[in-house]
Every structure is written in structure tokens, then in C-alpha cells.
Specification:
- There is one protein chain.
- By secondary structure, the chain is mainly α.
- The protein is built from two helices and no strands.
Length: 80
């Protein structure tokens, strides 16, 4: 009797798993469409090349980020 109950439970769980896999496939498709629409497709380029920044561009970005943090810290200091 116990083996009969287990086989029914196993079939039920397998059915639930199949349903969840279908739902996950739908979600994956929706995510892919949204990424394509927003232009933020995170898949790498086919040839594998990545764009690189020059050293001066990295310095400019770092300087700007440090300025943003300094501004934020100054604002927090003024409040507190």
C-alpha cells in the first residue's frame, strides 16, 4: 500500500516539475524580449571582443565618481 502512495506522489511531483519548467521557459522568453527592447542584452558579442577604455577615460570616470561620493558625504555631514 505504501509503494502505491509513493508512486502517486512521485507522478504528482513530476507533473508539478514539468509545469514549473514550462513556466520558467516562459519567463526566460519574457526576460529575453525585455532585454532586447531595452537594449541591455547581456549576452557577449559573437566574436568575443570587448570594448576597452583608455587610461585617460578611466581616470575621468574615477575622478567623477570620487566627486559624486565627496558630494554625498558632504551632504550627509551637513545633515548629521
Amino acid at each position: 500500500m505504501a509503494s502505491l502512495d509513493l508512486s502517486d506522489t512521485l507522478k504528482t511531483l513530476q507533473g508539478e516539475r514539468a509545469g514549473m519548467q514550462k513556466e520558467l521557459a516562459k519567463l526566460d522568453k519574457a526576460i529575453a524580449v525585455l532585454r532586447e527592447l531595452s537594449g541591455t542584452n547581456s549576452t557577449p558579442s559573437p566574436n568575443g571582443n570587448r570594448r576597452t577604455l583608455s587610461a585617460s577615460a578611466r581616470r575621468k570616470i574615477a575622478k567623477a565618481q570620487k566627486a559624486r561620493w565627496a558630494k554625498l558625504r558632504a551632504a550627509q555631514k551637513a545633515k548629521g
